[in-house]
Amino acid sequence: MGSTGARVRELQALLVRAGHALKVDGDYGPSTKSAVLAFQRFAGLIADGVAGPETMRALASFKVAPDERPGAVGPLQTDQAKQGGTAILGGAAIETARQQIENAADRLAPIPGFEWLSGALTVIAVLLVLGGLGWAAYGW
User: For residues 36 and 20, is the Cβ–Cβ distance under 8 A?
Assistant: First the structure.
């Protein structure tokens, strides 16, 4: 309890992949401990809430690659960068909106007469990306 940082984020990310509802924030608090306890019980380990070597070995099966570092955070994934876009939509919401607009543009593209709308939606998606990156850079 009380630990913070990349190793805790890695633990949390792997617990999420294992099916536990948990915020990946790098803070080993009560919700992380509860998820560790539940995982340990499920995996047949001693349920003590401590993410020791046995627990981490069991969670390693949820890595995409053996050398993957799911706790690593890029500069645009920090809380400060994500909060940079909150004045418009919010960091994660910008990406979601962009994806939805691109999906709508893809669905409209084959409909005769709607080519212009598909192009307009694509332009909006590009502007959202650029705006989101600008806000993220400002926040960072």
Answer: no
Three-state secondary structure along 69-117? CCCCCCHHHCHHHHHCCCCCCCHHHHHHHHHHHHHHHHHHCCCCCCHHH
pLDDT digits (tens, 9 = 90+) for 10-47: 888 888 888 888 888 888 999 999 999 999 998 899 89
pTM recorded for the entire structure: 0.53
Bridge partners of residue 27, in order along the sequence: 4
Distances (CA, A) of 1 to 5, 49, 59, 125: 12, 9, 19, 42
SS3 60: helix
